[in-house]
Design a protein that fits this description.
The protein is an alpha/beta fold. It has helices spanning about 20-25, 35-40, 45-55, 70-80, 95-110, 180-200, 205-230, 235-250, 255-270, 275-300, 310-330, 345-350, 365-375; strands at about 5-10, 30-35, 60, 90, 120, 130-135, 145-150, 155-160, 170. The strands form two sheets. A six-stranded parallel beta sheet has the order 1-9-6-4-2-3, with helices on both faces. Strands 5-8-7 form a three-stranded mixed beta sheet. A hairpin with a 4-residue loop joins strand 7 and strand 8. Helix 7 (about 205-230) packs antiparallel against helix 8 (about 235-250). The longest helix is centred in the last third of the chain and has 30 residues, at about 275-300. The protein is globular and about 60 Å long. The termini are far apart.
Length: about 375
């Protein structure tokens, strides 16, 4: 068994360590990848101050949107190359961090970022990476994957491999306080889907199991709290921990049908990834429970279910509990609320078969099964 994880700096005020962390990675002219929201929130300014304190001269790229696009990655890489930067820093949610990983791949591999879709296609060493998450969901700061949208085909592709595990992850729960409610809900449900899928993945192992179950417990107990009491730093810290643990779990197991299907909706409609996951997850739980009811029962217990009954009953309880949590944080009940049409389902089902995350789903997913899942979630 191998378990890949970066060095982790965690805790309130941890952003203050970012300058020293970048220096330890050999930075002189670090390349900071972020988005306008993080700039407006003031976190990029604080980061630049810490980099300046240790004598670094960063270059900042802010042209990343939710669900990072191939064209944005190309523009970021051109800036990285023109400015002769070295260490790459991603600060923000999953989009800036995934884009930062894409820049790192292009810097030593060349070609187009879409060339590296799939498993272990990027094999050469890449520049050191430092990741600073501002949401409690993506897990991109610790994972061996990144996702980018192919704007021509309007599909999301996953790039997965050990090469893209960052060197250092700096998690400061303070950064979570500037998320709006919609983003908080979406990223929390994304982390939940990471943990659930990691626990039933064909690639699971004892370490990933431990992290996945802990993450489910933390999310079930704290996501709603962060919505109701956004200033509760203890709850924020627990959600940050849940995101970290779920990220380390799925990084070492790959994911499953929830993410394979979700990526298709995100690519087609540029829809919020965590929201799509929140809609799909209960249906995928029921689908996978046909072969993994015992494991679903473990997850239900972690989410707070009182022991008793059959594994099948526990799995159904878990599906209902996930939907109840999604309702509580304001996630729509169906994909049609996001703009998915019945006429889109055949295309979505077909393209989902190319997603690498299906390889570790515990139950085989045919094109018809994918279509049925989309229809159930419509």
């Amino acid at each position: 068994m191998k378990f890949h994880a970066p060095e982790v700096v965690f805790g309130e005020g941890a952003l203050g360590e970012a300058g020293h962390a970048a220096r330890r990675l050999g930075a002189l002219r670090p390349f900071v990848v972020t988005d306008p929201g993080l700039v407006a929130a003031g976190w990029v300014h604080e980061l630049l101050g810490h980099l300046d304190d240790v004598g670094l001269a960063p270059e900042v790229f802010t042209g990343i949107t939710p669900n990072p696009k191939d064209v944005e990655v190309r523009a970021a890489f051109e800036r990285y190359r023109e400015q002769e930067c070295d260490v790459i820093i991603g600060i923000g949610g999953g989009s800036p961090m995934d884009a930062a990983k894409c820049v790192a791949i292009l810097s030593t591999h060349g070609g187009d970022i879409l060339d590296y879709a799939g498993l272990e296609r990027a094999t050469r060493p890449i520049p050191p990476m430092l990741m600073i998450p501002s949401t409690s969901g993506s897990g991109a700061d610790v994972s061996q994957s990144c996702v980018v949208t192919d704007t021509r085909r309007r599909v999301k592709v996953t790039i997965l491999g050990r090469t893209v595990v960052p060197e250092i992850s700096v998690t400061d729960p303070r950064l979570l306080t500037t998320m709006d409610d919609d983003l908080n809900a979406a990223t929390g449900l994304d982390a939940l889907s990471h943990a659930v899928e990691a626990y039933v993945s064909l690639g699971r192992n004892p370490l990933s199991d431990t992290y996945a179950l802990s993450a489910v417990s933390l999310i079930a107990g704290n996501l709603r709290r962060t919505m109701d009491e956004p200033g509760d730093m203890a709850a924020r810290a627990r959600m940050a921990q849940a995101s970290l643990q779920a990220g380390m779990a799925f990084s070492n197991t790959i994911l499953g049908a929830t993410h394979a299907l979700s990526h298709q909706v995100g690519g087609l409609l540029d829809a919020p990834h965590g929201v799509v996951n929140g809609i799909l997850l209960p249906h995928v739980i029921r689908f996978n429970a046909q072969v993994e009811s015992e494991r679903m029962a473990d997850l239900a217990a972690a989410a707070g279910r009182v022991p008793g009954g059959s594994p099948a009953e526990a799995a159904e309880w878990l599906a209902v509990r996930v939907r109840e949590l999604a309702d509580a944080v304001g996630v729509p009940r169906g994909l049609s609320d996001l703009g998915v049409l019945a006429g889109d389902l055949a295309r979505l089902a077909h393209t989902s078969l190319d997603d690498v995350n299906l390889t570790t789903n515990p139950r085989a997913v045919s094109e018809q099964a994918a279509r049925d899942l989309f229809l159930a979630a419509l």
